[in-house]
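Side project, low priority. Logging it here so it doesn't get lost.
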Amino acid sequence: MDAKVCVVAGVGPGNGTAFTRKFAAAGYRVAMLARTRERLTALEAEIPGSKGYAVDIGDAAAVKATFDRIHADLGPVDVLVHNAAAGAFTSFMETPPEMLEMTLRTNTMSLLHLGQQAAADMLKRGAGAIIVIGNTSAWRGVANYAAFAPSKAAQRILAQSMARSLGPQGVHVAYVVVDAVIDVPWARSVFSDRPDEFFCQPAAIADTVFHLAHQDRSAWSFEVDLRPFGEKW
């Protein structure tokens, strides 16, 4: 087990798959985490060096058990990419409490569960990287994001606290704000009238994430924002 290990949490058809491809191509053994076993099985057959684990990342005990399996199958974790996200888009008066609890569980609590498991490996070596994928909801709460934006803002602040705690011990924590519509099939159908340059490409996001995970410790980034060249901001 000489190759490094990367855990990608939230492996869907867009960013998660792109992150898996990028790290696997660089020689990492990649542990793919998602709820759907079928997608993971298909990617295992397609991407050499990848292995799928079906898990509810909002469940602390399930996350611990999954990391025990990753350690047995692949080894200690060098990089964690937290890409999992639960979306809910409602106005304030239309938001039931359980909807906000759901987004906080998936978007924020899962970072605590996953981050603690991964950091335990990294702190033993005094090295490692935890990269968290966020979006502009972490900066502002627009009208129909009452159940979503609070969880992303909390996620960003948790990542900042992690960076300040773990950074001096050699573990790099970074937060990537994606200010864009990501190029996945459902987004293409919703924005069918938009040109190609309207979308942010998952492979391009993966390039930045890989770079962040390998920055020299003399010049670490914490927050990086990504958007297409034509995006207004």
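Brief comment: The longest strand covers residues 128-135.
Revisit when time allows.
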